[in-house]
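Supplementary material to the annual report.
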Amino acid sequence: MSAREEILQRVRAGLGKRDAAARRAAAEACLSDPARGPQPRMASDLVARFADKARSLASSVEQVGDMAAVPAAVARYLTAQGLPPQAVATGDVAGLDWAGAGLEVAARVAVDADRTGISGCFCAIAETGTLMLLSGPRTPASVSLLPETHIAVVPVGRLVATMEDAFALLRAERGALPRAVNFISGPSRTGDIEQTIVLGAHGPCRVHLILCGETS
Amino acid sequence: MTAAVRSQAMFFQARAARQARDSGLQKTLEKARPLFVGKRAKGLAGLADDGLDFAGLRAACEAIRRRVVDDLDVWLELFEARATAGGAEVLWARDGDEVARLVVDIAQRHGVTKAVKSKSMLSEEARLNEALAAAGIRPVETDLGEYIVQLAGEAPSHIIAPAVHKTLAEVEALFAQHHERPVQARTAADIPALAAEARAVLRQHFLSAEMGISGANFLIAESGSAALVTNEGNGRMVTTLPRVHVVVTGIEKIVPTLDDFATLMRLLPRSATGQGISNYVSLLTGTRGADEREGPEKTVFILVDNGRAALAGSDFAAMLRCIRCGACMNHCPVYFSLGGHAYGWVYPGPMGSVLTPLFTGIENALDLPHASTGCNQCGSVCPVNIPLPALMHRLREMQHERGLRPWRERLALRAWAWLAARPGLYRWATRRAARYLRWLTDESGRIRVLGLAPEWTAGRDLAPPPGRTFHELYAARKRA
Ligand code: SF4
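Predicted assembly:
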């Protein structure tokens, strides 16, 4: 007997239930109509909530009026951090006028030598100050992972309240999940040496969020 | 017992005694305990700001996990179908040896010489690192804590803080030795430098390894995905850079929907580290697309039994709900007296005291279900409401039923049962015993040496009983 059959048979024997077809139908029904658990009650200002939570996770946050203002904001940030004016970017933000702000930005997968990665996001979650990124041909996951500094552009209109709302948006706009959905909440960290928190474990040690658009 | 198990849990008493005398370890544990407890308390307190509470979330998390455990066969088939449709291959393993065989085989077929690993307790169950090394494939642990214990040639002592038993000086010595540099004097201010050193070394491994091996915190049936929760980002590295990604995980890890996953994520990080959310949460489905330039070309999920299937429908089915948050050990007085290595196998603390006998054989871990004060701290913090003390109790009963307890204990119990069935004699005997204990009490009001069982009072005094039996006291009270 295959391992699969043997394991499933052991489980079935233990459960001692018969009506496999009915149980399967019930499980499928549960999948096609996902129910939410207890939901948080939050103030309606998602921008303020998102910025607050993101800062508490050691990200820095700024807000600009529109997308056209993003390259200059990035240039200012890089200068302030003493970082070179080069970056790797995901395709969804590569089309901005980076050269106009004096930056050299390449749209490709990231390599070890990249110091700064700039990404957009699929959406962002106010409850926890979290970015939701989807991997894809134009949006490689390495851009938000390999460089020490990750700058993310977050259009205000893409803020949702909870992870459940983010999943609802994903189902509505994409249907299936891409290879990797990455939720990012601040710079990487470790507490593995004497329980002391250190920022910058394997992923970025700096995360800068540029909220983009007017708060209504 | 298969070669993959090789538990040391039989030697609990000897290991516990050694650990209890290790003053360095005791200091480290003393420092860690209030941190663990305090962080969780703070994390849970934050829920109130959003009108949420632990009890409500815990009931929801318990219900989600119950739904899966109650129909595990159905959920496994559903998950398998959707994961396969998503582009992953799904394999099954009966035990740890089979896991090791499958992983080595995949590695050899893909010409793998090095595998980077993100923390997986199941790979410890399977002793996967040994199997890979024996096949000439270099396993590199990349969670900083796991990396430290790998360099030390040890096993993790905690499921979420594998190197909690290691001091800064020990880490410095290990890094100096393995990174081939002189030892330096270090203070807490140098911890970031040590983390940066590990980052630089491990970065090269991430970039050169052909295979990534990870566990999964959950398997999501709705989307056929593995969910990976980390803070360091190593989970993302391991599943993004190498050509092949193998997920090794238990059959019980399924959650039905993405929404259920979102609910569990409100309690898992808070229970583990007090965080409202972990830094990285990744949902991994299938392989890289035709027009993608990164991500694994091959993704394999290995669904492992290794003792889990036998728990379905049993007295211990509740244990299948466990989400491996570590809260039970973080609140356990026994764990913090002894450290994780005392438990002798992969899982320490209360959840280990239940799982180790179930997975490796009740007769191979006789002491573990007794390594409890019965305080139920573990049960009260468990985010999926597993009655850990009751399960340990049931294991003790089973030891008795199978004649696995020492003859003296069995004889004593039989004598007590005989006596208890004879009320007159019972009252007479307990009266004598109460007087005897009263008589043993010295001028300080304590019993320092218990005559018939002196080992009981070797390390502590016994509080004396009132000198009269319950029956006598009750009768006196009724008269009054
Ligand atoms: S038994 Fe409960 S508290 Fe312990 S690790 Fe499992 S889920 Fe967490």
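The pocket of iron/sulfur cluster is lined by residues B 322-328, 351, 381-384, 386 (CB under 6 Å).
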